[in-house]
UniProtKB/TrEMBL annotation:
Domain of life: Bacteria
Organism, as annotated: Pseudomonas abietaniphila
Keywords noted in UniProt: Lyase, Metal-binding
InterPro entries noted in UniProt: ICL/PEPM (IPR039556), Pyrv/PenolPyrv_kinase-like_dom (IPR015813), Pyrv_kinase-like_dom_sf (IPR040442)
Protein name: 2-Methylisocitrate lyase, PEP mutase family
GO molecular function ontology, one term from the record: lyase activity
One Pfam family from the record: PEP_mutase
């Protein structure tokens, strides 16, 4: 069974919740696979940070992103879903081309979000609903004839922008993306289980959830959520740990972290 079919099957209505951790390099993807997760997402932020850029920085060459995605896909046997930001293109035609490319690389799915301009990370510019839907439709059209099992995730980052916290706007956008052909829907920034359930009740396709405080896997499972991703949090958690270790080296127990690190033998078994 190919990766896309296995990934698509995880999204069937009768399939249980699955967690899709997000990798930024071959090694992180292999560790996720070794721990038994059925799929791996990528994180655009982690891939950018790894190269010394901020997330979605206009200064970062998109070829670096495609190279990272290709290397991650080649590193593991489990399906990979690519964080393709806004399709890495200004036009629907560019979105089509990039989704065909990511399908040919071997990804089981990919996401597309509704940000038009990332220049100011504190105030991104958004496509209007009609423009965003045209781009979602272009992504779907690009992969359907090549690989009908490819999972297109349509994402609105509306709650991460400088807007009022509006569930009605999120629902409007996700419902429109659903009608445009998306297989899975995603709205990072939902603040509570109650808000999550409100959004979910208006949709038919599976909803991917980036957990917020007080959300747990058990609560998400009980709510009927099918897919949970972790975004850039694993990368940030790893760098937080590194920062803490380096800041505390001169303390009495500053070198104790060395005993808590993963053994070299363990990582040698995970890597190739």
């Amino acid at each position: 069974m190919n990766a896309s079919k296995r990934f698509n099957d995880l999204h069937r209505p009768d399939s249980p919740l699955f967690v899709m951790p997000n990798a930024w390099c071959e090694g992180s993807a292999r560790l996720i696979e070794q721990l038994g997760y059925p799929s791996v997402g990528t994180t655009s932020a982690g891939i950018a940070f790894m190269r010394g850029y901020r997330d979605s920085s206009p200064a970062m060459d998109d070829e670096m992103k495609f190279e990272a995605l290709d290397r991650i896909v080649r590193a593991v046997q489990i399906p990979v879903s690519a964080d393709l930001e806004n399709g890495l293109a200004r036009t629907p035609e560019g979105v089509e081309s990039n989704f065909r490319r990511i399908s040919d690389i071997g990804c089981g799915g990919a996401s597309i979000e509704d940000i038009a301009d990332y220049s100011d990370p504190k105030a991104p510019v958004f496509f209007n609903v009609e423009q965003a839907c045209e781009r979602v439709g272009a992504a779907c059209e690009a992969v359907r004839t090549r690989n009908p099992n490819f999972v297109v995730t349509a994402r609105t980052d509306y709650l991460l922008g400088q807007h009022d916290y509006s569930l009605s706007e999120v629902i409007k956008r996700l419902a429109a993306f659903e009608a445009a052909g998306a297989d899975c829907l995603f709205a990072p920034g939902l603040r509570s289980m109650e808000d999550l359930k409100t959004v979910q009740s208006e949709l038919f396709k599976p909803l991917n959830v980036l957990p917020a405080p007080r959300m747990t896997i058990d609560r998400l499972r009980a709510a009927g959520i099918q897919r949970v991703s972790l975004g850039s949090s694993l990368f940030r958690a790893a760098y937080k740990q590194i920062s803490m270790v380096l800041a505390e080296l001169d303390q009495l127990t500053g070198l104790d972290y060395m005993q808590r690190a993963l053994p070299l033998e363990h990582l040698d078994r995970v890597m190739r």
